[in-house]
Request: fold
Amino acid sequence: MKEAQKIWMNGELLDWADAQIQVLSHGLHYGSSVFEGIRAYGTDDGPAVFRLDDHLARLERSAAVYHMPLPFSRSELRDAVHEVVASNGLTEGCYIRPIAWRGYGVMGLYPLDAPVDVAIAAWEWGAYLGEESLRSGIRAKISSWRRIGHNTIPATAKAGGQYLNSILAKIESHKGGYDEALLLNENGFVADGSGENLFLVRAGTLTTPPPQASILEGITRATVMSLAEEEGIPVSEREIARAELYAADEVFITGTAAEVCPVREVDDFPIDAPGPITRRLQERFFDAVVGRDPRSAEWLDYVTVPARAGP
Ligand SMILES: Cc1ncc(COP(=O)(O)O)c(C=O)c1O
Reply:
């Protein structure tokens, strides 16, 4: 990660090194934080944040699940995201990380008396799983760790603590020599990757697990589903058994970090990657994010530098 210069924290733009928290912050001890991963891309008209409003709406929904009142409105957070991208000169695009956490105040588990702090950082971050993986696909392995059930921790809220589950799966896959872990849910059906949603293609139909399969409802997932619809590709949301992946014509994963990334092996079963539907959806996605496709213009939030009040 290349350190950018400024981080927005609780309404102020601080130097990177000054954005510090108290070690007794509730969020650090118990994972009581909610966050987003967002990307901005360089376009002919300057940097544009992809689906910013959708990400901030999800941040609000995640915070609501944990009874965490966000002390900034959606439009204040939107301005702050613009300010962070602009003030760090990230014109070629970047990854943006807004996070809200229970701060310093209480050490018991009951968090509602602790303050809610908010920060937004941004940095240059290339292809999450490597440039080559976008071209020729990744090797994925079904994890021995199950995705947390939705009556244990709700997968639809993007909260810090639940990522311990992804971290266990990620370490296991890495140590096994694979690029990414795929997790089954408590019922034994395919849920998702450690930080991505999953799609398979069979006989021309795109299939992805439904929200009740313990997935995060990804914004890239929703993007790909609507692009597929525009392309006339049938989309089905249904439970997927692991062996369906072995027999799939194509498999790919989606996420803000991973973008649209082909999978070329699952549990050492080879899969054609990238297959024609993956390639088409990848093209549509990358055209959309950089503003090459007027059909997707509504998803782009062009960075304008909001005026900062005061001296
Ligand atoms: C578990 C999990 N699933 C899916 C996704 C993809 O979501 P999005 O496309 O909104 O980044 C992420 C990334 O945030 C994730 O962490």
